[in-house]
Write a structure and sequence with these properties.
Largest sheet: 5 strands, mixed
Radius of gyration: 24 Å
Strand order of the largest sheet: 3-2-1-4-5
Order of helices and strands: HHHEEEHHEHEHHHHHHH
CATH topology of the largest domain: Nucleotidyltransferase, domain 5
Strand content: 5-15%
Number of helices: 13
CATH architecture of the largest domain: 2-Layer Sandwich
Number of strands: 5
Number of domains: 2
Structural class: alpha/beta
Distance between the termini: 75 Å
Helix content: 40-55%
Length: 293
């Protein structure tokens, strides 16, 4: 499972509904969600993204798959199946997975479940060795923010298995999902956002699974499929990040919403164009002198 939650239809979702009365233009305008991004946060988010690409040789795109973190009445931490880190610069990818560890140790597939903790510990040993060998790197991720799903969840799982994690400073973690919200506004794409972005931009999902599919794959013991999905997701995240940085990412946010209206657009354009600003200042000065005369 990943940071995207599955959208499950309930019986009420599937039941036929009465057709709503048509909104008047005024009501439709009132009901429309505000999607325009905050100008200050938008600028800061673009700067963060630009800084990552200007230092791309020191940036890893990271993602991982795990057991479902929902419906866990005993409170046990979700077991991890695979992790991948991809260089934003070279696209070289390092991956760590249960089935590969089992293969190296000559553990038959049928015995993976019985020896899962042992295999998971060795997988995470290799992952943290990689982190330790690349200290100071930056990590671009998707919703890896807390103890349910994120760096803290991996650290906790490793501690449960008896390991001592190599900690990544929070200042070196960059959440692409939040960056995109700051750039394009909270309603820039439907849910689940990652899948909808892939559809909107015609990115081939190939081996990528949804969160619900990954949860089922874990139950089914489809560790190879989970690994392939994780590998595909770091590629997709790098692709989306590059399109956003190049301002080529397609979203549901309109040009008007992106730029906050004509007045803000004009003011920003003048502020960014020193020659135009100078010309306007000179014209204003000439008009002022003419008025006095």
């Amino acid at each position: 499972m990943t940071g995207d939650t599955a959208e499950v239809a309930t019986q009420n979702d599937l039941a036929p509904a009465a057709l709503p009365a048509a909104d008047t233009p005024a009501e439709a305008k009132k009901r429309k969600p505000k999607t325009a991004p905050n100008p200050k946060r938008q600028k800061e988010a673009r700067q963060r993204l630009d800084s990552l690409f200007s230092d791309r040789s020191n940036v890893w795109v990271i993602h991982y798959s795990c057991e479902s973190f929902y419906d866990r009445p005993n409170g046990a931490s979700p077991r991890i199946t695979s992790l991948a880190v991809r260089s934003l610069d070279s696209a070289q990818t390092h991956s760590f997975s249960i089935h590969q560890v089992a293969e190296r140790l000559k553990v038959p597939f049928a015995e993976i479940e019985a020896r899962y903790d042992e295999l998971e510990r060795q997988m995470l040993d290799a992952y943290y060795q990689h982190l330790g060998a690349h200290r100071g790197m930056k990590y671009l991720h998707w919703n890896m923010r807390d103890i349910n799903y994120g760096f803290a969840a991996i650290d906790h799982r490793y501690q449960v298995l008896g390991g001592t994690p190599v900690l990544v400073d929070d200042a070196r973690k960059f959440d692409l999902s939040r960056i995109l919200i700051d750039i394009y506004g909270v309603a820039y794409i439907g849910h689940s956002r990652l899948e909808k972005l892939i559809e909107k931009n015609e990115i081939q999902p190939r081996d990528m699974m949804t969160g619900a599919e990954e949860a089922q794959a874990f139950i089914d013991g489809n560790y190879v499929g989970l690994h392939q999905s994780t590998l595909r997701k770091v590629d997709v995240l790098a692709n989306i990040a590059e399109r956003a940085q190049n301002k080529h990412l397609l979203t549901n946010t309109t040009w008007w919403e992106m730029h906050g209206g004509n007045l803000r657009t004009a003011l920003d354009w003048v502020a960014d164009n020193k020659v135009i600003a100078l010309v306007i200042a000179v014209i204003g000065l000439v008009l002022a002198i003419y008025a006095i005369a």
